Amino acid sequence: MEICQDSSPNPAYEAPPLSMRSNIFGDGGGGYLVTYPSIGGIVIATTPLPADLAHLGLSQTRDTERSNAIAEEDDIANRMLRLGANWWPDWDTYARHRERVDQGILYDFHFPPDMFVGYPSTGGVWVSKFSADLDQSWAGGKESSQPRMPKGWRQALAGALTMDDKCKVMEDLGAVFYDSIGLCPDVAQTVDQGKEMFERYLALLRNMEDPEYLARWLAIKGRSSDRENGDDFYEE
To answer: Which DSSP category does 184 fall into?
Structure first.
């Protein structure tokens, strides 16, 4: 099974220009923050929160340019991952599958979950993990192997201008607290770790582009036992 490398013509899934780190504030952009670490691939954060931009030392009102310094690029990539961003092998792979998720194709564990991470000034870390699927993709009583995002989650977080504000919203909406980020298995702390964590999704994403596999997956997605039998689909 080969994955097509054609980019989506939809401007909502276009990467920022190579000279730029983000296209959050421009017209027609999808709202992405990206870094290109030295080990290869790309680290992507979709529509980062104002509190996250401030935490990274980036502008909350304008798009910023990429750095020519390799060490700086790697540093921002590591810090983005600690905020819940994901490493991907290339932009086209991300955009193609992200668009399909947003179109309502049910991916469940085949696509990395949406991660939200907050670091309160008092120490520790708040973490929430949600299915990347649209809510309507789970109509009909289907069960997700990952938690569903609470209604109003993004709207509530959008108003958090500081990291402490973000953490308070996350706490109020049921986030999990850890004494340190190292205790959370779902958040990468380095690019190397982010790439390693993504390895499990490579085969799963390829499977979702195999018509026979996709038909079989979609045919059984409504069974109540999907959650328990999900491991059957972790095919290499």
So the answer is: -
Q: Burial level of 14, CB count in 10 A (0-12/13-18/19+)?
A: middle
Q: Which helix (H) or strand (E) holds 125?
A: strand 125-130
Average pLDDT, the chain: 87
Contacts for 84 with CB less than 8 Å, ≥ 6 apart? 45, 114, 115, 116, 117, 127, 187
CB 234 within 8 A of CB 204: yes
Domain boundaries along the sequence of the chain: 11-221
List, for residues 189-203, the tens digit of each pLDDT value: 999 999 999 999 999
Strand partners, 88: 42
Give percent of the chain with pLDDT exceeding 90. 69
Q: Which residues contact 29 (CB under 8 A, 6 or more apart)?
A: 11, 12, 14, 16, 23
Report yes or no: 56 and 76 within 8 Å, Cβ to Cβ: yes
What's the pLDDT score for residue 135? 77
Distance (Å, whole) CA 49 – CA 114: 13
Contact between 150 and 174 (Cβ < 8 Å): yes
**Stated pTM of the model:** 0.87
Long-range contacts of 148-157 (CB under 8 A, 24+ apart): 149/114, 150/174, 157/49, 157/51, 157/116
For 25-55, how does the pLDDT look when each residue is reduced to its tens digit (9 = 90+)? 876 556 999 999 999 999 999 989 999 999 9
